[in-house]
Specification:
globular; 7-stranded mixed β-sheet; Rossmann fold; 3-stranded antiparallel β-sheet; alpha/beta; 9 helices; 246 residues
Length: 246
Amino acid sequence: MGYWNRLKANWYRRGLDYSGLSEAALKVMLPRLAGVKTILDVGAGCGTLAIPLAREGFSVTALEPSIAMLDILKAECRKEGIRKIKAVNASWGEAPVKPHDAILCANVPELLKEPEAFIKGADALAKKAVFLIVNAGPDSDKFYYRELYPLLFKKEWGPRSDYLKTYAALHGMGIFANAEIISYNFDQPFDGIDEAVAFWREYLGIVTGEHDAALTGFLKKKLVKKGKILLARFNKKSAVIWWRKR
Protein backbone atom coordinates (compact mmCIF):
# COMPACT_ATOMS: atom_id res chain seq x y z
CA MET A 1 0.00 0.00 0.00
CA GLY A 2 2.84 2.37 0.79
CA TYR A 3 4.54 1.92 -2.61
CA TRP A 4 2.38 4.46 -4.43
CA ASN A 5 2.98 7.69 -2.57
CA ARG A 6 1.61 10.88 -4.13
CA LEU A 7 4.89 11.68 -5.83
CA LYS A 8 5.04 8.34 -7.65
CA ALA A 9 1.31 8.36 -8.37
CA ASN A 10 1.53 11.76 -10.05
CA TRP A 11 4.54 10.67 -12.12
CA TYR A 12 2.66 7.55 -13.20
CA ARG A 13 -0.39 9.58 -14.21
CA ARG A 14 1.75 11.92 -16.31
CA GLY A 15 3.32 8.89 -17.98
CA LEU A 16 -0.10 7.67 -19.11
CA ASP A 17 -0.26 10.58 -21.55
CA TYR A 18 2.72 9.00 -23.35
CA SER A 19 1.65 5.37 -22.95
CA GLY A 20 0.15 2.92 -25.41
CA LEU A 21 -0.78 0.35 -22.75
CA SER A 22 -4.53 0.94 -22.62
CA GLU A 23 -4.87 0.96 -26.40
CA ALA A 24 -2.83 -2.23 -26.82
CA ALA A 25 -4.60 -4.04 -23.97
CA LEU A 26 -8.11 -3.09 -25.05
CA LYS A 27 -7.38 -4.21 -28.59
CA VAL A 28 -7.00 -7.72 -27.16
CA MET A 29 -9.71 -7.50 -24.51
CA LEU A 30 -12.68 -5.87 -26.22
CA PRO A 31 -13.36 -8.65 -28.75
CA ARG A 32 -13.39 -11.13 -25.81
CA LEU A 33 -15.84 -9.17 -23.65
CA ALA A 34 -19.03 -10.29 -25.37
CA GLY A 35 -21.86 -10.45 -22.85
CA VAL A 36 -19.82 -8.65 -20.18
CA LYS A 37 -21.36 -5.65 -18.41
CA THR A 38 -19.47 -5.48 -15.10
CA ILE A 39 -15.69 -5.63 -14.55
CA LEU A 40 -13.68 -5.80 -11.34
CA ASP A 41 -10.29 -4.14 -11.91
CA VAL A 42 -7.93 -5.43 -9.21
CA GLY A 43 -5.11 -2.98 -8.53
CA ALA A 44 -6.76 -0.39 -10.76
CA GLY A 45 -4.22 2.33 -9.99
CA CYS A 46 -5.26 5.72 -11.31
CA GLY A 47 -7.57 4.20 -13.90
CA THR A 48 -5.15 3.08 -16.60
CA LEU A 49 -7.69 0.54 -17.88
CA ALA A 50 -10.73 1.28 -15.70
CA ILE A 51 -11.32 4.67 -17.35
CA PRO A 52 -11.09 3.51 -20.99
CA LEU A 53 -13.27 0.50 -20.13
CA ALA A 54 -15.87 2.82 -18.59
CA ARG A 55 -15.73 4.96 -21.72
CA GLU A 56 -16.62 1.80 -23.66
CA GLY A 57 -19.76 1.42 -21.53
CA PHE A 58 -18.70 -1.14 -18.94
CA SER A 59 -19.50 -0.70 -15.24
CA VAL A 60 -16.14 -0.97 -13.46
CA THR A 61 -15.30 -1.56 -9.81
CA ALA A 62 -11.79 -0.17 -9.25
CA LEU A 63 -10.15 -1.97 -6.33
CA GLU A 64 -7.02 -0.08 -5.30
CA PRO A 65 -5.16 0.16 -1.95
CA SER A 66 -3.41 3.47 -2.68
CA ILE A 67 -5.35 6.59 -1.71
CA ALA A 68 -3.01 8.66 -3.89
CA MET A 69 -3.90 6.57 -6.95
CA LEU A 70 -7.63 6.62 -6.21
CA ASP A 71 -7.61 10.39 -5.75
CA ILE A 72 -6.22 10.73 -9.28
CA LEU A 73 -8.78 8.26 -10.64
CA LYS A 74 -11.66 10.13 -9.01
CA ALA A 75 -10.37 13.47 -10.29
CA GLU A 76 -10.17 12.06 -13.84
CA CYS A 77 -13.72 10.72 -13.54
CA ARG A 78 -15.01 14.11 -12.41
CA LYS A 79 -13.13 15.84 -15.21
CA GLU A 80 -14.60 13.55 -17.88
CA GLY A 81 -18.02 13.11 -16.28
CA ILE A 82 -17.53 9.35 -15.95
CA ARG A 83 -20.12 7.76 -13.66
CA LYS A 84 -19.61 4.07 -14.34
CA ILE A 85 -16.62 3.55 -12.03
CA LYS A 86 -16.99 2.61 -8.37
CA ALA A 87 -13.74 3.15 -6.43
CA VAL A 88 -12.97 0.81 -3.51
CA ASN A 89 -9.97 1.65 -1.33
CA ALA A 90 -8.68 -1.82 -0.39
CA SER A 91 -6.19 -4.50 -1.32
CA TRP A 92 -7.28 -7.79 -2.81
CA GLY A 93 -8.85 -9.88 -0.05
CA GLU A 94 -9.33 -6.94 2.34
CA ALA A 95 -12.84 -5.93 1.32
CA PRO A 96 -15.79 -8.08 0.29
CA VAL A 97 -16.52 -7.79 -3.43
CA LYS A 98 -19.43 -9.25 -5.34
CA PRO A 99 -19.00 -11.43 -8.39
CA HIS A 100 -18.50 -9.53 -11.65
CA ASP A 101 -18.85 -10.64 -15.23
CA ALA A 102 -15.10 -10.22 -15.74
CA ILE A 103 -12.09 -9.87 -13.45
CA LEU A 104 -9.07 -7.86 -14.60
CA CYS A 105 -5.65 -7.65 -12.94
CA ALA A 106 -3.03 -5.67 -14.85
CA ASN A 107 0.61 -5.35 -13.84
CA VAL A 108 0.26 -6.23 -10.15
CA PRO A 109 3.21 -8.63 -9.72
CA GLU A 110 2.80 -8.94 -5.94
CA LEU A 111 -0.48 -10.82 -6.43
CA LEU A 112 1.14 -13.29 -8.80
CA LYS A 113 4.31 -14.14 -6.88
CA GLU A 114 2.51 -17.34 -5.90
CA PRO A 115 -0.24 -17.15 -8.50
CA GLU A 116 -2.45 -20.09 -7.55
CA ALA A 117 -4.22 -18.36 -4.65
CA PHE A 118 -5.11 -15.26 -6.64
CA ILE A 119 -6.15 -17.27 -9.70
CA LYS A 120 -8.47 -19.42 -7.61
CA GLY A 121 -10.11 -16.36 -6.03
CA ALA A 122 -10.41 -14.43 -9.29
CA ASP A 123 -11.82 -17.41 -11.17
CA ALA A 124 -14.43 -17.93 -8.46
CA LEU A 125 -15.58 -14.28 -8.65
CA ALA A 126 -15.71 -14.10 -12.44
CA LYS A 127 -19.00 -15.01 -14.07
CA LYS A 128 -17.74 -14.95 -17.65
CA ALA A 129 -14.01 -14.19 -18.04
CA VAL A 130 -10.68 -13.36 -16.38
CA PHE A 131 -7.92 -11.17 -17.83
CA LEU A 132 -4.40 -10.96 -16.44
CA ILE A 133 -1.76 -8.60 -17.83
CA VAL A 134 1.75 -9.66 -16.84
CA ASN A 135 5.29 -8.65 -17.77
CA ALA A 136 6.71 -10.64 -20.68
CA GLY A 137 10.41 -11.44 -20.55
CA PRO A 138 12.54 -12.07 -17.44
CA ASP A 139 15.37 -10.11 -19.08
CA SER A 140 13.24 -7.04 -19.79
CA ASP A 141 14.46 -3.71 -18.44
CA LYS A 142 12.83 -1.22 -16.09
CA PHE A 143 13.78 2.47 -15.94
CA TYR A 144 17.23 1.69 -17.41
CA TYR A 145 18.06 -0.43 -14.34
CA ARG A 146 20.20 -2.85 -16.36
CA GLU A 147 22.59 0.01 -17.04
CA LEU A 148 22.13 1.94 -13.81
CA TYR A 149 22.67 -0.86 -11.29
CA PRO A 150 26.23 -1.61 -12.49
CA LEU A 151 26.95 2.13 -12.79
CA LEU A 152 25.66 3.14 -9.37
CA PHE A 153 25.75 0.01 -7.23
CA LYS A 154 28.42 -2.13 -8.95
CA LYS A 155 26.05 -5.08 -9.35
CA GLU A 156 23.65 -6.51 -11.89
CA TRP A 157 19.92 -6.03 -11.75
CA GLY A 158 18.20 -9.39 -11.37
CA PRO A 159 15.58 -11.09 -13.55
CA ARG A 160 11.99 -9.86 -13.51
CA SER A 161 8.81 -11.84 -12.99
CA ASP A 162 7.47 -13.30 -16.21
CA TYR A 163 4.09 -14.41 -17.52
CA LEU A 164 5.19 -18.02 -18.03
CA LYS A 165 5.05 -18.69 -14.29
CA THR A 166 1.44 -17.55 -14.21
CA TYR A 167 0.60 -19.45 -17.39
CA ALA A 168 2.15 -22.65 -16.02
CA ALA A 169 0.17 -22.26 -12.79
CA LEU A 170 -3.04 -21.94 -14.79
CA HIS A 171 -2.20 -25.05 -16.77
CA GLY A 172 -1.52 -26.95 -13.57
CA MET A 173 -4.94 -25.92 -12.26
CA GLY A 174 -6.66 -27.18 -15.39
CA ILE A 175 -7.29 -23.72 -16.84
CA PHE A 176 -6.15 -23.68 -20.46
CA ALA A 177 -5.82 -19.97 -21.00
CA ASN A 178 -5.04 -17.88 -24.05
CA ALA A 179 -2.04 -15.54 -24.14
CA GLU A 180 -1.23 -12.71 -26.50
CA ILE A 181 1.93 -10.58 -26.31
CA ILE A 182 1.46 -6.84 -26.64
CA SER A 183 4.19 -4.26 -27.18
CA TYR A 184 3.73 -0.62 -26.27
CA ASN A 185 5.56 2.55 -25.32
CA PHE A 186 5.37 3.88 -21.78
CA ASP A 187 7.45 7.05 -21.90
CA GLN A 188 7.95 9.23 -18.83
CA PRO A 189 7.95 13.04 -19.13
CA PHE A 190 9.95 15.44 -16.96
CA ASP A 191 10.01 19.22 -16.74
CA GLY A 192 13.80 19.17 -16.50
CA ILE A 193 16.86 17.18 -15.51
CA ASP A 194 16.43 17.92 -11.79
CA GLU A 195 13.00 16.30 -11.76
CA ALA A 196 14.36 13.32 -13.67
CA VAL A 197 17.12 12.82 -11.08
CA ALA A 198 14.50 13.07 -8.30
CA PHE A 199 12.43 10.39 -10.08
CA TRP A 200 15.28 7.89 -10.19
CA ARG A 201 16.35 8.65 -6.64
CA GLU A 202 12.81 7.91 -5.47
CA TYR A 203 12.47 4.67 -7.40
CA LEU A 204 15.96 3.45 -6.56
CA GLY A 205 15.56 4.30 -2.88
CA ILE A 206 18.54 6.66 -2.85
CA VAL A 207 18.31 9.00 0.15
CA THR A 208 21.62 10.84 -0.21
CA GLY A 209 23.18 12.86 -3.01
CA GLU A 210 26.16 10.56 -3.52
CA HIS A 211 24.94 9.30 -6.90
CA ASP A 212 23.50 12.58 -8.23
CA ALA A 213 26.46 13.39 -10.47
CA ALA A 214 26.49 9.92 -12.07
CA LEU A 215 22.70 9.93 -12.47
CA THR A 216 22.71 13.41 -14.01
CA GLY A 217 25.42 12.49 -16.53
CA PHE A 218 23.65 9.25 -17.47
CA LEU A 219 20.22 10.87 -17.87
CA LYS A 220 21.51 13.78 -19.93
CA LYS A 221 22.62 11.23 -22.51
CA LYS A 222 19.46 9.11 -22.29
CA LEU A 223 16.58 11.57 -22.16
CA VAL A 224 15.09 13.01 -25.33
CA LYS A 225 14.10 16.66 -25.68
CA LYS A 226 10.50 17.09 -26.86
CA GLY A 227 9.31 20.68 -26.86
CA LYS A 228 9.58 21.97 -23.30
CA ILE A 229 9.91 18.55 -21.67
CA LEU A 230 12.40 15.72 -21.42
CA LEU A 231 11.20 12.20 -22.24
CA ALA A 232 12.54 8.91 -20.93
CA ARG A 233 11.57 6.46 -23.66
CA PHE A 234 10.61 2.92 -22.67
CA ASN A 235 9.24 0.07 -24.74
CA LYS A 236 7.49 -2.68 -22.84
CA LYS A 237 6.12 -6.11 -23.59
CA SER A 238 3.32 -7.72 -21.61
CA ALA A 239 1.24 -10.84 -21.96
CA VAL A 240 -2.54 -10.54 -21.91
CA ILE A 241 -3.67 -13.87 -20.47
CA TRP A 242 -7.37 -14.56 -20.61
CA TRP A 243 -9.90 -17.32 -20.32
CA ARG A 244 -13.67 -17.58 -20.54
CA LYS A 245 -15.57 -19.44 -17.86
CA ARG A 246 -17.17 -22.70 -18.81
